[in-house]
Design a protein that fits this description.
It comes from Alkalispirochaeta sphaeroplastigenens. Belongs to the complex I 24 kDa subunit family. This is NADH:ubiquinone oxidoreductase. This protein is α+β, with helices and mostly antiparallel strands. It has 2 domains: 12-71; 83-164, Glutaredoxin, CATH 3.40.30.10. It is built from 6 helices and 4 strands. Helix 5 links the parallel strand 1 and strand 2 (122-127). Helix 2 (32-43) packs antiparallel against helix 3 (48-58). The termini are far apart.
Length: 181
């Protein structure tokens, strides 16, 4: 699977943060994956610059670092939302309208599977069986399991997560209003 890697410049604070992450794992065998996990947690995704710096700090070829990131689906090379929505499309969820729930979420969020909303509040993904087949269809938002999801409840289900996505001023992001005449 080919992923396009987003590009950001690392400022000195980010470089120091990445250096601390690498130092915390330096003498551990197999440090690469924990360093990548911590870096993704700190920066939200793994940019090309982060991967290059990890390569330099751990003295591991960039091709190896990049190969690990593209192999494991956990890692993201593009910005992700604060909340990850996973729609189960395992057999039980699929036959109980899981595909329609996915379509309704795509419409509500205006994103396709694998994409992140413009405000970086949500990333939409598909999952295969969350072990809650009797509660199908199931949607996980982060670590929260939502059962027997129906189109009519999608906005209600998303509301508390939307409330957590605030701008720098501490207010919920809003669409720009047209000036009144």
């Amino acid at each position: 699977m080919h992923q396009e890697t987003a590009s950001i410049s690392l400022d000195p604070v980010q470089q120091q943060q990445l250096q601390r992450i690498a130092e915390s794992h330096r003498d551990k065998k197999g440090a690469l994956i924990p360093v990548l996990q911590d870096a993704q947690g700190a920066f939200g995704f793994l940019s090309r610059e982060v991967l290059q710096e990890v390569s330099r700090l751990l003295e591991i070829p960039f091709s190896v670092v990049s190969g690990v990131v593209t192999f494991y689906s956990y890692f993201s090379t593009t910005p992700r939302g604060k909340n990850t929505l996973r729609v189960c499309l395992g057999t039980a969820c699929y036959v109980r309208n899981g595909k329609q729930v996915l379509a309704d979420l795509q419409k509500e969020l205006s994103v396709a599977v694998g994409e992140t909303t413009g405000d970086r509040c949500f990333t939409l993904e598909i999952g295969r069986c969350f072990g809650a087949c009797g509660l199908a269809p199931v949607v996980m938002v982060n670590d929260d399991v939502h059962q027997r999801v129906k189109a009519a409840r999608i906005r209600e289900m998303l509301a508390p997560y939307r409330a957590c996505c605030t701008d720098d001023a501490g207010e919920e992001p809003r669409e720009k209003e047209e000036p009144h005449e």
